[in-house]
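Project outcomes to date are best conveyed with an example. Our students and postdoctoral researchers have been running inverse folding experiments weekly, and each run begins with a structure described purely in tokens. The record below, which covers 342 residues, was selected by the lab manager from last quarter's runs and is presented without edits.
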């Protein structure tokens, strides 16, 4: 009895689609506004961009009808085997394949299906139910607008290019240069000992359409690995208290800050087309930020002097003082790129 119970548990715990899939799949139907979708005896109205239907997983094709005014067209889309089914390769003795082979949960349908109206034929048609994929040798040129108004660091003008090695894999490189004074804390030092300058280099490797999280078939989604290298030089004012025997006094000093920052991120992004050639790339991610700060010919000694913080706001100046920071910090990134596709 125990052996039989163990065998049953082994079989069911190793069947990936049986465990991870529900009885119903989710399908987004994108169609012109006010289109009616007749499916499984119900009728759904496209109010904006799409409607969502939940067909029961089976070996049968997905069938529904679209209608808009006097135009009506029936469609049938074949089922396909879910990618989770092949995770059974990791199951002991591949027993998961045997369990899922008899279960309709192993089937799925296209997640996003796009439709348009052919006015000449008075019918609906599906021009491309998948995203408009990029092709090998495609080239983008882009800039990152938010970096030009960066109040937490140095505002930079940026220019980058992205090249597709394959239809899904791309590499990109970006260069940025400081073009104005800092906008945030420390933007107006009392003395200008050195010229305010800086530059940045960014490199990224992206793999497109591995995931499909968004509900828009025009969007190309990607997972990226990014490395950024920033080099700054600027002036920073600080105040500190120094104790000499029975005397305590305040010293104001303008520091020379030479800052190196190396950033490594894992990113998820959406590339959304605007018209035929323009695009917006929205991204977010996290990683690690590595600092190396040098203050040349500094009078302030963090071991004997007491830094006087600015209590009016979070004092970012501490990040620019050698010896007061940990070298490693968690990094979160969020922003967008605007570019042109050749």
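After processing, the design step wrote out the following sequence:
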């Amino acid at each position: 009895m125990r052996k039989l119970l163990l065998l049953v548990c082994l079989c069911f715990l190793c069947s990936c689609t049986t465990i991870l899939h529900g009885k119903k799949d989710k399908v987004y139907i994108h169609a012109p506004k006010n289109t009616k979708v007749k499916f499984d005896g119900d009728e759904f109205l496209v109010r904006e961009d799409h409607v969502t239907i939940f067909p029961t997983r089976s070996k049968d094709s997905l069938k529904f009808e679209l209608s808009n005014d006097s135009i009506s067209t029936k469609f049938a889309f074949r089922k396909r085997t879910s990618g989770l089914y092949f995770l059974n390769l990791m199951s002991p003795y591949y027993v998961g394949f045997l369990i899922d082979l008899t279960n309709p949960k192993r089937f799925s349908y296209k997640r996003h299906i796009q439709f348009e109206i052919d006015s000449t034929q008075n019918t609906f048609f599906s021009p491309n139910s998948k995203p408009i994929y990029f092709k090998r040798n495609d080239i983008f040129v882009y800039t990152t607008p938010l970096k030009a108004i960066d109040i937490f660091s140095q505002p930079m003008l940026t220019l980058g290019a992205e090249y597709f090695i394959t239809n899904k894999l791309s590499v990109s490189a970006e260069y940025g240069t400081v073009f104005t004074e800092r906008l945030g804390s420390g933007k107006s030092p009392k003395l200008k000992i050195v010229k305010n300058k800086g530059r940045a280099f960014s490199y990224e490797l992206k793999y497109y359409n591995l995931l499909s999280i968004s509900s828009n078939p025009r969007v190309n989604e990607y997972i990226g690995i990014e490395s950024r290298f920033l080099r700054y030089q600027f002036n920073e004012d600080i105040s500190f208290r120094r104790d000499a025997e029975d005397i305590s006094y305040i010293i104001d000093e303008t520091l020379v800050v030479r800052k190196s920052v190396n950033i490594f991120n894992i990113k998820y992004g959406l590339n959304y087309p605007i018209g035929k050639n323009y695009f917006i790339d929205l991204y977010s991610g996290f990683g690690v930020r590595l600092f190396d700060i040098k203050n040349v010919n500094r009078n302030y000694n963090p071991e004997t002097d007491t830094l006087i913080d600015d209590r009016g706001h979070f004092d970012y100046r501490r990040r620019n003082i050698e010896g007061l920071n940990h070298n490693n910090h968690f990094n979160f990134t969020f922003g967008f790129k605007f570019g042109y596709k050749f």
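The chain has three helices and 20 strands. Residues 2-125 form one domain. The training component of this project remains on track.
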